[in-house]
Each structure stands twice: as structure tokens, then as C-alpha cells.
């Protein structure tokens, strides 16, 4: 069973990305031939600054490895290192109806706002379908916002198979458990578009400052407080055991505790959680040739598989050498 997913390198990873997606990719590694890639081609629909993208895609690779992606258990690569995917995208586009792409939300939302969409954004779901279908992927773990795109990939694969025979594997989405949305420093969903994020690799001093600035209500210190509605407590839960949570919840309910104390507890828990990843990241940053060798080996493995799948389709649709 092949598990595959991609993540766009459009900013440094924050707690929402980690608990909502990355941690779950890591949990799935090794139980299959897991493929994870950094979607740098997709990122080009929003980042048009070469130096910036170069920095972000390597940051993403370092971050994923530091957070626990094991090169021995999963294949990590850059999307753009597998040019076969671009050819596959073309083949898929020739069977993709316009209406299927017109109803996809990224394009539809932009158009509804009266903004000009480019062909890259319009055909984004076909590139995503190529990413998935190129490797005979069975299961694609994604956030709920991406489920529509997996359905499009499945539809396109079905159309190819109807025209040319059983060539492509039909993938299924596995929705990640982001039902418990990670709140940002302002209480809204943590997202880089809201500028309310706390990054996974924040240094302790800055981390503490960010945590101390999390918005809380103005209940006086002496009054009892409600843990369930407080973002500080919601975040604390991500890093701690049920016993630790019960202890802090009791402090909330008893009164006499200021939010500063809860924030300090959150800081200590989060700092302890990410400290090993920070150390590992520093080691990786000091050994970029190793990181490059992981990415190169990943790209080779991914390309081998993509060549095989593309070869099947090329042959079926009349391309390539005379059989
Ligand atoms: P952002 O909203 O910061 O732009 P992305 O859309 O790039 O983040 O997120 C990549 C993945 O990370 C999403 O598909 C989703 O699964 C997960 N994710 C992002 N923010 C959160 C959050 N606040 N809570 C839970 N999961 C999240
Ligand atoms: N579009 C996805 C996102 O923004 C990233 C992505 C690109 C992806 N290709 C993919 C995810 C293939 C899963 C499978 O999150």
C-alpha cells in the first residue's frame, strides 16, 4: 500500500501544520512505502521570488527531517525533481473536463472575489492528480480542505482507465484529524494568512514572548477561570498528558491563578516538546550535503516509480517506441 502526501513550502511550519498534518505523516511512515514530497511547483502559484522559494523549500526539508521524518522509513523529495509528473499532468489534462476544474474551490473562490486567476491556479488540481497518480498511490492523507482535490484525482484516473484500460490506481483520501483545530495567538484558527502562528522552531526567548502575547479574557486573577474556552489551555493539551491537563484545569477552576502562570506552563511544555527537534535541525543545517543526499535518493526512488507508471500510460495512449 502506498501512502503519499505533499506539503507546500509557503512559510515556516507552525504548530497548526505540525499537529494537523506533519505529525500524522510521521506516524504513517514505515507502515508502507510512504512517499512525502515538498510541493515546490504548487508553491509557484503564490511565491514568485526565486531566492525566497529556494530558502523555503530547503527549510521545509530540514524541518520535516528534524520533526521526525526518517529517510530509512519514508521517501522524501522535491516535487520538481520528478519531471515525469509534468508530462503526466499533460496526459491527464487531455481527459479532464473544464467543468471539473471550474468547480474546484481555489479557483472558484478567487473568481468569486473578482480576482484574475492564472492557468496555474486553474489547473492546480490536475498537477495534484499527477502527483498522486504517478506513484500508484492508494492512500493520500490530507486536511479536509484538500479532499475535493483527491476526488478530482480519482475522477481523472477513472476517465483515463475508461479510455485506455486499467492503467492507473484509484486513490482515496484519508482525512487528517484536524477536527480539533489548533488555535492561533488571537484565538482564531492558527494560519499564516492570519499572522497568528507560533512556529515549531522558534527559539525559547521568542517562543516565550509569543506565548505571553496569546489573547486571553480579562477575568481577574482571583476569579475561577474556564479551561475549555481558553486557547492557552487548548494549546497546553497538545503537549501534555491527561494528568498534567487535569492539574492545570484544577488551577483554572480554583481561582487565584493568573493567565501568566498558565502561559508559563504552556511555554515549558512546548519548549520541552520541540527542543530535541531544534537540536536535530541545527545538526542537519550543519550537514547540508547529507540533507541533499536524502533528497537526491528520494527523487531517484520517486522517479523510478513515476517512469514506470508514465511508461504504462504512454504505451496505452500510443506514444513511445513501436511495441
Ligand atoms: P496555513 O493555513 O498556515 O496557510 P496550510 O494551508 O499550508 O497552512 O496547511 C497545511 C496543512 O496543515 C493543512 O492541510 C492542515 O491539515 C494543517 N493545518 C494548518 N493549520 C492548521 C490548524 N490551525 N489546525 C490544524 N491543522 C492545520
Ligand atoms: N495542494 C496541497 C496543499 O496545499 C499540497 C499537495 C500538492 C498535495 N500535491 C499533493 C497533497 C498531492 C497531497 C497529494 O496542501
Characterize the structure shown:
- With 323 residues, the chain is mainly alpha-helical.
- The chain is built from 14 helices and 5 strands.
- It has helices at residues 15-28, 40-43, 50-67, 84-93, 98-102, 105-112, 119-122, 124-133, 147-164, 204-212, 231-239, 242-254, 259-285, 288-316; strands spanning 4-7, 34-38, 74-78, 139-142, 172-175.
- The longest helix has 29 residues, at 288-316.
- It is elongated, with a radius of gyration of 22 Å.
- The site of tryptophan has 11 residues, from strand 1, helix 8 and strand 4.
How would you summarize the topology of this molecule?
Elements: E1 4-7, H1 15-28, E2 34-38, H2 40-43, H3 50-67, E3 74-78, H4 84-93, H5 98-102, H6 105-112, H7 119-122, H8 124-133, E4 139-142, H9 147-164, E5 172-175, H10 204-212, H11 231-239, H12 242-254, H13 259-285, H14 288-316
Parallel strand pairs: 1-2, 2-3, 4-5
Helix pairs in contact: 3-13, 4-8, 4-14, 8-9, 10-13, 11-13
This protein binds adenosine-5'-diphosphate and tryptophan.
Radius of gyration, whole Å: 22 Å
What order do the helices and strands follow?
EHEHHEHHHHHEHEHHHHH
CATH fold label of the largest domain: Rossmann fold
Strand % is 5-15%
Structural class: mainly alpha
Low-confidence stretches: none
How many domains?
2
Mean pLDDT: 95
Amino acid at each position: 500500500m502506498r501512502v503519499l502526501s505533499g506539503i507546500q513550502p509557503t512559510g515556516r511550519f507552525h504548530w497548526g501544520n505540525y499537529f494537523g498534518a506533519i505529525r500524522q505523516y510521521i506516524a504513517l511512515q514505515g507502515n508502507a512505502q510512504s512517499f512525502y514530497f515538498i510541493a515546490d511547483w504548487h508553491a509557484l502559484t503564490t511565491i514568485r521570488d526565486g531566492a525566497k522559494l529556494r530558502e523555503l523549500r530547503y527549510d521545509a526539508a530540514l524541518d520535516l527531517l528534524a520533526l521526525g521524518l526518517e529517510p530509512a522509513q519514508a521517501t522524501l523529495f522535491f516535487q520538481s525533481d520528478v519531471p515525469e509528473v509534468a508530462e503526466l499532468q499533460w496526459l491527464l489534462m487531455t481527459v479532464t473536463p473544464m467543468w471539473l476544474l471550474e468547480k474546484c474551490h481555489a479557483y472558484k473562490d478567487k473568481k468569486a472575489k473578482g480576482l484574475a486567476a492564472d492557468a496555474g491556479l486553474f489547473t492546480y488540481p490536475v498537477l495534484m492528480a499527477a502527483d498522486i497518480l504517478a506513484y500508484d498511490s492508494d492512500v493520500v492523507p490530507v486536511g479536509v480542505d484538500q479532499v475535493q482535490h483527491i476526488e478530482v484525482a480519482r475522477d481523472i484516473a477513472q476517465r483515463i482507465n475508461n479510455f485506455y484500460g486499467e492503467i492507473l490506481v484509484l486513490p482515496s483520501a484519508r482525512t487528517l484529524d484536524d477536527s480539533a483545530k489548533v488555535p492561533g495567538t488571537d484565538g482564531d484558527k492558527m494560519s499564516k494568512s492570519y499572522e497568528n502562528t507560533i512556529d515549531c522552531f522558534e527559539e525559547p526567548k521568542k517562543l516565550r514572548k509569543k506565548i505571553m502575547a496569546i489573547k486571553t479574557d480579562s477575568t481577574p486573577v482571583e476569579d475561577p477561570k474556564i479551561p475549555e474556552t481558553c486557547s492557552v489551555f487548548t494549546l497546553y493539551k497538545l503537549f501534555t498528558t491527561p494528568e498534567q491537563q487535569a492539574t492545570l484545569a484544577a488551577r483554572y477552576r480554583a481561582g487565584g491563578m493568573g493567565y501568566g502562570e498558565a502561559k508559563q506552563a504552556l511555554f515549558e511544555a512546548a519548549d520541552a516538546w520541540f527542543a530535541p527537534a531544534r537540536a536535530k535541525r541545527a545538526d542537519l543545517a550543519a550537514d547540508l550535503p547529507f540533507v541533499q543526499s536524502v533528497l537526491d535518493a528520494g527523487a531517484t526512488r520517486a522517479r523510478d516509480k513515476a517512469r514506470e507508471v508514465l511508461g504504462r500510460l504512454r504505451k496505452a495512449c500510443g506514444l513511445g517506441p513501436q511495441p
